[in-house]
Amino acid sequence: MNFSIRGQHIEVTDALKDYVDKKLGRLEKYFDAPPTSEGYVTLSVIRGLHTVEVTIPLPGVMLRQKTAVKICIHQLIRSWTSWNVRFANTKLN
């Protein structure tokens, strides 16, 4: 899955890009087929608080989390699995 990474009040270095790719690479095992759309990642620093916003558009649902950097992946996994369980039997267009 490809991600477009941008920074808000922070410079996005190669080390940050590698860190984001490594962390978001853990999400690939939860998809049957890799999504064809591009995900969006926004890194921001406001008053010393480092946050990340991850948006993954999928057919029928848009996964979005905005939290602290370390817990964002866990919350994305939790929201994906809960969505997948609720709508497993529903056919999407």
UniProtKB/TrEMBL annotation:
<protein>
    <submittedName>
        <fullName>Ribosomal subunit interface protein</fullName>
    </submittedName>
</protein>
<dbReference type="Pfam" id="PF02482">
    <property type="entry name" value="Ribosomal_S30AE"/>
</dbReference>
<dbReference type="InterPro" id="IPR003489">
    <property type="entry name" value="RHF/RaiA"/>
</dbReference>
<dbReference type="InterPro" id="IPR036567">
    <property type="entry name" value="RHF-like"/>
</dbReference>
